């Protein structure tokens, strides 16, 4: 799953390329929306919500006498899941990914946006966006970030491991595997520790929030400031390498969800993050 900062960057690029632009042609290559034509619609904005991308469009004003002059509003909702991406090309420009993986093509006078291998692609009335993303917890990168609400949702299930809870987008939105491993390390807690036993849960989620916020530019790193030249992580992907703080060997393990499923890799320092 992508991290929230990836979605934030994708939304930012798409918004820059498409906001205010009129769609000249659209092509939805999924059965449910194969006949949908958004030509004439205007992209108003592209916003991230957790790991979801919302492209908001305003419909052409209906000139029929007596018709409502209020523009209709639609949202293209997509989720990148494991393999997905949105690419931006000059109009008619050559694609850099295989054409058969394209799921959505939006053409404007100044750019073509193509969504490849999208995990979710659907079009809904903007008024119904909440049905799609309303279940999400507070967004770590959102303008409406609510720390108290995130803590409340996390603490509501105190027996769940903190490593699993941080990935649960219903509790708080935006953390993927990299930042959950790094945030646990920075808090000195093992990912298998139950949420209810984390000494300072607010610090843990604020560490994750800070790391996400520091990585909204190109490249990603957690150990050094955003302007540093040498990128790296504290523990993520560093199996068998020495801990940057204590020198102990970083380990990789698996952490299961509460029902024993959805095992994901965890990376941790056995000395800085003692097993519960
Ligand atoms: Zn260590």
Describe it.
The chain has helices at 4-18, 129-133, 147-155, 162-165, 177-187, 201-214, and strands at 25-28, 42-49, 52-58, 73-79, 85-89, 102-107, 112-116, 120-125, 251-255, 264-268. It is an alpha+beta fold and 276 residues long. The model has no long low-confidence stretch (mean pLDDT 91). It has 2 domains: 4-133, N-terminal domain of MutM-like DNA repair proteins (Alpha-Beta Barrel), CATH 3.20.190.10; 147-268, Orthogonal Bundle (Helicase, Ruva Protein, domain 3). It has a 4-stranded antiparallel β-sheet with strand order 1-6-7-5, with helices on one face. Helix 5 crosses helix 6 (201-214). Strand 9 (251-255) and strand 10 form a beta hairpin.
